[in-house]
Amino acid sequence: xxxxxxxxxxxxxxxxxxxxxxxxxxxxxxxxxxxxxxxxxxxxxxxxxxxxxxxxxxxxxxxxxxxxxxxxxxxxxxxxxxxxxxxxxxxxxxxxxxxxxxxxxxxxxxxxxxxxxxxxxxxxxxxxxxxxxxxxxxxxxxxxxxxxxxxxxxxxxxxxxxxxxxxxxxxxxxxxxxxxxxxxxxxxxxxxxxxxxxxxxxxxxxxxxxxxxxxxxxxxxxxxxxxxxxxxxxxxxxxxxxxxxxxxxxxxxxxxxxxxxxxxxxxxxxxxxxxxxxxxxxxxxxxxxxxxxxxxxxxxxxxxxxxxxxxxxxxxxxxxxxxxxxxxxxxxxxxxxxxxxxxxxxxxxxxxxxxxxxxxxx
Length: 362
Prior knowledge:
The protein has helices at 8-11, 30-38, 41-44, 55-64, 81-84, 114-131, 151-156, 165-172, 201-204, 207-223, 249-263, 274-282, 294-305, 340-355; strands at 18-22, 48-53, 72-75, 89-93, 143-146, 179-183, 188-191, 230-234, 267-272, 288-291, 310-314, 319-323. It is α/β, with parallel strands linked by helices. The protein has 2 domains: 1-175 and 316-362, Isopropylmalate Dehydrogenase (3-Layer(aba) Sandwich); 180-314, Isopropylmalate Dehydrogenase (3-Layer(aba) Sandwich), CATH 3.40.718. A hairpin with a 4-residue loop joins β6 (179-183) and β7 (188-191).
């Protein structure tokens, strides 16, 4: 068998970061995409992975995909956890939730449930706890990658205070400014507002809510190696308001925020009509698009790059990424989930984590 060539990280003598991976809703496709993505030995050589989830569900997904298990298993509250962290992949098993079962064992079970919501919430809380450990602690995470959860399941479990991962991470890390950002080969998009009702936008859209994603997104792009990011800002209304004919948010809020960002030296332009600006961005004329609301930004991303797009919570003191898809209850347990977005999320998390720290010999 031929040897796997050294990765660029290994050639540079970089330290392997520790990446936390939460399994997501036990009844969704989370376990499947995690198993498939981490099955690549070359990826496992780039980092160490701590999977917060259920070993039984992971084994079931591996069996369906005909993938030989490649991980160590240790009970999440066992004193042996610290002795296992040197392994490439360790499952921190929350076996107290095994009564939930695995998707596919009974297709009717693949749905939002209170138990699934509680389990997936606990996985994330455990990973956040480890990400907040002091530098040098053997369990400290350099980044967290989250598999999909069901927002309805979180609500059913009494966790409805948090509409999703993004808000939970922002709260737990006391982030003053944060934004939901999507990164893919052809498009980078950051949102001014995220999980809010469309009818509330008029009252939520302030100068600060528009300026912050411009500023935060500029920093993220620079961290990705783009020296002078070119940023485009969407209007809220059709035709970017058409000079006030279709709404005044552009002149009252968005344009002043753009001027403020320009005064700080950011190369930002707009507001542009949202129905055309993504075409220019996909052609490479802009490095980042600031969208005013969730679907305005997510529709083009998922249309063009759904299998490669990565969700990033920008503005946190740690790296957090996630695949750009949901639990896919309709195909859970059928071995049909595409793991490319999860793989892209893992690769980006490693890249971003390594960019935040000096390279040292492993």
